[in-house]
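Propose amino acids for all 957 sites.
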C-alpha cells in the first residue's frame, strides 16, 4: 500500500480504504451479475423482459468495438467506456430503457502475427486476450448487458457477416430508383428485353461466363483486377497506410511494387451522393463530417474526349473545362489500359530528345518508366517532388476545341484512383503541370488573364497563374468564344458546346474509390463464394452458412525474394486442398459439381460494419435481426430521420473508414428492406486521449517512467539525465499504467472519478498518478458524511435540512443533472465535491433526505460506493434504477443577488435585491439610493439602462 493509504488511514475500523473499496466493489459486481441489473428488455423475443421498463423511452448507447490486445488495458483505454457508463446510468435514472453492452472486434493482424511467431492458433491467443480484458473491464463496474456481448470470431456471428456479404453480392444499384435492388430483378429486365445487354444480344444468347461478366459490372460486391501494393518480401498485399513515403513496407522495410491482382471490391461509390447528403441529418462533430466529405470528394466538372489516331479517345475529367483551350499536352497514369494500345513502334519524326528518356523506342521508354513507377507508393507519387518525371508515349491526341495535336505522356503524378487516370494538362494555370512542362520543354498557353502584372506570355512566368476570379482569354474557335467571360459562365458555355458536339458532357466525379475488400490472410471471415470450372463466382446458399475457417499447418503467407516484383500472393487458406477443392450442390438445379473456394479472407473492417445490429438481437439464428426489435432501438423518429444508435463514443482516428463502411452497409441493408435505419449512428462523440510523459535517455530509448526521479526541475533514470515529452501511453513507451494498479491502490470508483474529473471529455489530458488521491479523498469524505468510521453505523437523522443546505443541495442537483445530460462529467464532479464540502463543513449528522440525494447524485459516477451507501440507508432495491433527484426551482435561484449601479460608468452603489425584480422596480430602487442621489448632485438624467437583476447604468444629462 502506498504512502497515501498509510496505517493512520486504516486505524478507524470502518474507514473507506482501498481494501474496503475492493470488498464493496467485488460484492456489488457479483450482485449486479446475479440479478441481471443491467439487462435491457427488448419489446419482444427471447430478451423480452419487464414490459413496464420496455415501455419507457429507449436509449441505445455504444462504444467503438475494442480489439482484444495481448497487452491488456492501460488507464487510457477505459476513458470512453467509463464515460458511456456514467451517461447510461444517468439515463436509466431519468426514466429510460438503456441498452449498453460491449463486444470484441477479434479478427485482426496482431493475433495472426503472433500465430506465425509461436504457432499458437489465433483463436487461442485471442480468446485468452478476451478473457483477460473482460476481467479488467468488469473490475471497473461497467453496467453492460452481458447477454448481448459477443466476439466477431464466433461462427454464429460471422455467419451473418457472410450473409450480409451475399446480400451485397446479390444486389445492384438502380440509379433511377436511387437505391439497391436484388440482382434477380436486373436479370429479369435483361431476360425480358426491357434492359438491353451491352452488345445488344438477347440474354439467352449469352454464355454463363458472359452473363457473369455483365452482372459483375452492376453487382455491389464484385471481383476485378485491381492495382495493389504487393510486397514479395512479406508475401502480402498492403494498404496504402502500410507503405512508407519511400515506397517500402512499414513493417520490415521491404520493397513494395504495384501489381494487378484479382480482388473483391464493394461498390461504395454507388452511394457517394447519399453518403454525402445524409451527413446533414447526423449529430456528429463538424470536423468528422468535414473529413468524410473530403474523403468522398464530390466535384462538379466535365468529361472531355480527346481523339487519338488509330485508337479510342482518351477521356479526362476536369473541374476546369473553361481552360480547355490551354491544354497543350496530356498525361496518363502509367497503369492506364490505353498506354499499350497507343504506343507506336517508333518515335515520331522530330520527337524532342528530352521526351524520350534516352530510349531507342517508345515501347522501351514506357516499359522502363512503368517499372520505375510501380516501385512507388501512391503517397510517394503524389508528393510534391522537386524533379518531375515522365516519358512521351509516342502518341498524339487532338484537343477537341483547338484542333491542335497534343503529345501524350505517362507520369507517376497521375493516379488511376482518381477521375479517369488521365488528365489534360494546362501548364499555364496548374502548378504541377507548369513544373512538368518546364522540365520537358512543353508549350504553354495563357487562357486565364492574370490579375497581377506578369502579362500573358507564360514563357516569362516563374510559376502558374491559378486564380478562379479572372477573365478568359485566347479561348475561341470558329464556333465558340469564351473570351471575356468569367470562369463560372465560361464553364457553363463550354460544357454545353461539348455536349452538343458529342465530345463531352457535364458530370460529377468523386474522390471516393470502391472499397478493396480482399486480404491475403488467414485470420478473417472466409468469403461464402465458390468458383466453377469456368471461373464464374457462385454464392453459397444460406443453408451452408457459416462457412468456417479451416485448420492450416502454417498461418504465414508465402514470402519471396523482396526484389522479385514478378510474383503473386499465395494465401494461407490455399494450402488446405481438402477445404479449397469441393463438390457441392448449391441448390441451383445443376446438381453436385466441382468448385474451388475463394481463399482470400474479408478485411478486419467487416465485423465492425454491422455489430450494432447484433447487439439488438444477439441470439437470433433465423434472421439478421427481428424487424420489430430493430425498429424499437434504431428506427427513425423525430429528430433522427435516418434512425441509428442514440450515442456512439470513440476516438477520432476512425473518422473516415470504419464510419464510412458501416454507413454503406446500413444503407444497402435498408434499401433491401432488412432494417428501418438508413444510418448506423445518429450521434457521434469523440473522446480525447489520456496522455502520459515519455522519458528517453541519451540514445532516444524510452525508459520506465515509474523509475524516473525528479530533481531540481530535471529528470533522472538511474542517475542519468533523461528528456521528458508528453505523448501517448503504451507498453512500448514504458509509461503505461494499468487500471488494475489504480484499482488495487484506491478502488475502481476512485479511478472512474479521476478519469471523468481530469477535464472535458473531448479534450486530451495528461495522466498524473499523484493526482488520483484527490478523488479518493472525496469518496472518503462522502463515506464519513453517512457512516461512522468507528462503529460502521449510519449517522443520518430524520430531520429537515436548513435553508442554506437546501439551497446548496438543489443547486447541485440542478447543475449535476444538466452536466450529466451534456456529458460534462468533470464539472458534474466539481459540483458534487462542492456540495459534499458544504455538508462536511456544516458539521453534525446529515438529514436523511440530503444523504439520499447525495448518494443518488454520485451513483452514475461511483456506482459501487453509491450502491453500498444506498443499502446501508435501508433500501432493498438497487440504486441503479432509482430516480435521479429533481431540483426544486425555488431553491435553485439565489435568494438575493448583487446589482451594480453605475453613474457615468463608475460604480456608485451595490444593491442586494431579489433575482425576480422587474426593470421598473430596479430603476426606482437605484435612483432612490442615497449614494446614487449624492453622485448625481441634482443633475438631470438623460438615460437609465437597466439589465435586471445585475446592472443599472445612469447617464446624467
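Proposal:
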Amino acid at each position: 500500500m502506498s504512502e497515501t493509504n498509510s496505517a493512520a488511514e486504516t486505524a478507524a475500523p470502518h474507514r473507506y480504504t482501498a481494501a474496503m473499496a475492493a470488498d464493496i466493489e467485488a460484492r456489488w459486481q457479483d450482485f449486479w451479475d446475479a440479478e441481471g441489473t443491467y439487462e435491457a428488455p427488448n419489446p419482444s423475443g427471447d430478451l423480452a423482459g419487464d414490459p413496464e421498463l420496455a415501455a419507457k423511452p429507449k436509449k441505445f448507447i455504444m462504444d467503438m468495438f475494442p480489439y482484444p490486445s495481448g497487452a491488456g488495458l492501460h488507464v487510457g483505454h477505459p476513458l470512453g467506456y467509463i464515460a458511456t457508463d456514467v451517461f447510461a446510468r444517468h439515463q436509466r435514472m431519468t426514466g429510460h430503457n438503456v441498452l449498453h453492452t460491449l463486444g470484441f472486434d477479434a479478427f485482426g493482424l496482431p493475433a495472426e502475427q503472433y500465430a506465425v511467431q509461436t504457432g499458437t492458433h489465433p483463436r487461442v491467443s485471442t480468446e485468452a486476450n478476451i478473457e483477460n480484458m473482460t476481467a479488467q473491464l468488469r473490475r471497473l463496474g461497467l453496467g453492460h448487458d452481458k447477454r448481448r456481448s459477443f466476439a466477431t470470431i464466433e461462427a454464429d456471428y460471422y455467419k451473418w457477416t457472410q450473409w450480409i456479404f451475399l446480400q451485397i453480392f446479390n444486389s445492384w444499384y438502380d440509379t433511377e430508383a436511387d437505391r439497391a435492388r436484388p440482382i434477380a430483378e436486373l436479370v429479369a429486365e435483361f431476360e425480358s428485353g426491357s434492359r438491353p445487354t451491352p452488345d445488344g444480344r438477347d440474354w439467352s444468347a449469352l454464355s454463363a461466363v458472359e452473363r457473369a461478366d455483365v452482372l459483375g459490372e452492376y453487382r455491389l460486391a464484385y471481383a476485378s483486377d485491381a492495382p495493389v501494393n504487393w510486397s514479395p518480401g512479406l508475401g502480402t498485399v498492403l494498404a496504402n497506410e502500410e507503405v512508407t513515403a519511400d515506397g517500402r513496407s512499414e513493417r520490415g522495410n521491404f520493397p513494395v511494387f504495384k501489381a494487378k491482382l484479382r480482388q473483391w471490391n464493394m461498390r461504395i461509390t454507388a452511394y457517394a451522393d447519399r453518403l454525402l447528403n445524409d451527413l446533414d441529418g447526423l449529430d456528429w462533430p463538424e470536423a468528422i463530417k468535414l473529413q468524410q466529405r473530403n474523403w468522398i470528394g464530390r466535384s462538379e466538372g466535365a468529361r472531355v474526349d480527346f481523339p487519338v489516331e488509330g485508337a479510342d479517345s482518351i477521356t479526362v475529367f476536369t473541374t476546369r473545362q473553361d481552360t480547355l483551350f490551354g491544354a497543350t499536352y496530356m498525361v496518363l497514369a502509367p497503369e492506364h489500359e490505353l498506354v499499350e494500345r497507343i504506343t507506336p513502334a517508333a518515335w515520331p519524326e522530330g520527337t524532342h530528345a528530352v521526351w524520350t528518356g534516352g530510349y531507342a523506342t517508345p515501347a522501351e521508354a514506357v516499359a522502363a518508366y512503368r517499372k520505375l513507377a510501380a516501385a512507388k507508393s501512391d503517397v510517394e507519387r503524389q508528393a510534391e517532388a522537386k524533379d518531375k518525371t515522365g516519358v512521351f508515349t509516342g502518341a498524339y491526341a487532338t484537343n477537341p476545341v483547338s484542333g491542335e495535336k497534343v503529345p501524350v505522356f505517362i507520369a507517376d503524378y497521375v493516379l488511376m484512383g482518381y477521375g479517369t487516370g488521365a488528365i489534360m494538362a494546362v501548364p499555364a494555370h496548374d502548378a504541377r503541370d507548369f513544373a512538368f512542362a518546364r522540365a520537358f520543354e512543353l508549350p504553354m498557353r495563357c487562357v486565364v488573364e492574370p490579375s497581377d502584372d506578369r502579362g500573358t506570355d507564360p514563357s516569362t512566368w516563374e510559376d502558374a497563374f491559378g486564380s478562379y476570379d479572372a477573365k478568359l482569354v485566347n479561348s475561341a474557335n470558329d464556333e465558340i468564344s469564351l473570351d471575356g467571360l468569367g470562369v463560372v459562365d465560361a464553364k457553363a458555355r463550354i460544357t454545353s458546346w461539348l455536349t452538343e458536339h458529342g465530345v463531352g458532357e457535364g458530370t460529377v466525379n468523386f474522390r471516393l474509390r470502391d472499397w478493396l475488400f480482399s486480404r491475403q490472410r488467414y485470420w478473417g471471415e472466409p468469403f461464402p463464394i465458390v468458383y466453377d470450372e469456368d471461373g464464374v463466382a457462385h454464392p453459397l446458399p444460406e443453408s451452408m452458412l457459416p462457412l468456417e475457417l479451416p485448420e492450416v499447418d502454417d498461418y504465414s503467407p508465402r514470402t519471396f525474394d523482396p526484389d522479385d516484383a514478378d510474383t503473386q500472393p499465395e494465401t494461407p487458406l490455399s494450402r488446405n486442398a481438402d477445404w479449397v477443392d469441393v463438390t457441392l450442390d448449391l441448390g441451383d438445379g445443376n446438381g453436385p459439381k466441382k468448385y474451388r473456394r475463394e481463399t482470400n479472407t474479408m478485411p478486419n473492417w467487416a465485423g465492425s460494419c454491422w455489430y450494432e445490429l447484433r447487439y439488438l438481437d444477439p441470439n437470433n439464428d433465423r434472421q439478421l435481426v427481428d424487424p420489430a426489435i430493430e425498429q424499437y432501438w434504431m428506427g427513425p423518429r423525430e429528430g433522427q430521420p435516418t434512425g441509428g444508435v442514440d450515442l456512439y463514443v470513440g476516438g477520432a482516428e476512425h473518422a473516415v473508414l470504419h464510419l464510412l463502411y458501416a454507413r454503406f452497409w446500413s444503407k444497402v441493408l435498408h434499401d433491401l428492406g432488412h432494417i428501418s435505419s438508413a444510418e448506423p449512428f445518429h450521434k457521434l462523440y469523440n473522446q480525447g486521449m489520456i496522455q502520459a510523459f515519455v522519458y528517453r535517455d541519451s540514445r532516444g530509448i524510452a525508459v520506465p517512467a515509474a523509475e524516473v526521479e525528479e530533481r531540481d526541475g530535471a529528470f533522472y533514470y538511474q542517475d542519468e539525465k533523461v528528456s521528458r515529452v508528453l505523448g501517448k501511453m503504451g507498453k512500448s513507451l514504458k509509461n503505461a499504467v494499468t487500471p488494475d494498479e489504480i484499482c488495487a491502490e484506491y478502488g475502481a470508483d476512485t479511478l472512474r472519478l479521476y478519469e471523468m474529473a481530469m477535464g472535458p471529455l473531448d479534450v486530451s489530458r495528461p495522466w498524473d498518478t499523484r493526482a488520483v488521491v484527490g478523488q479518493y479523498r472525496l469518496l472518503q469524505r462522502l463515506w464519513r458524511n453517512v457512516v461512522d468510521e468507528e462503529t460502521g453505523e449510519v449517522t443520518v437523522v430524520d430531520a429537515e435540512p436548513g435553508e442554506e443546505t437546501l439551497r446548496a443541495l438543489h443547486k447541485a442537483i440542478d447543475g449535476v443533472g444538466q452536466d450529466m445530460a451534456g456529458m460534462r462529467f468533470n464539472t458534474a464532479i466539481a459540483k458534487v465535491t462542492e456540495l459534499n464540502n458544504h455538508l462536511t463543513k456544516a458539521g453534525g449528522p446529515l438529514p436523511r433526505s440530503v444523504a439520499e440525494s447525495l448518494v443518488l447524485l454520485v451513483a452514475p459516477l461511483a456506482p459501487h460506493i453509491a450502491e453500498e451507501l444506498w443499502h446501508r440507508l435501508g433500501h432493498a432495491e438497487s440504486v441503479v434504477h432509482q430516480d435521479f433527484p429533481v431540483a426544486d426551482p425555488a431553491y435553485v435561484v439565489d435568494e438575493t443577488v448583487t446589482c451594480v449601479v453605475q453613474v457615468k460608468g463608475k460604480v456608485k452603489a451595490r444593491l442586494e435585491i431579489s433575482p425576480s425584480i422587474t426593470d421598473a422596480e430596479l430603476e426606482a430602487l437605484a435612483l432612490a439610493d442615497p449614494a446614487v442621489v449624492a453622485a448625481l448632485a441634482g443633475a438631470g438624467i438623460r438615460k437609465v439602462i437597466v439589465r435586471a437583476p445585475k446592472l443599472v447604468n445612469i447617464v446624467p444629462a
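The chain has a mean pLDDT of 93. The radius of gyration is 35 Å.
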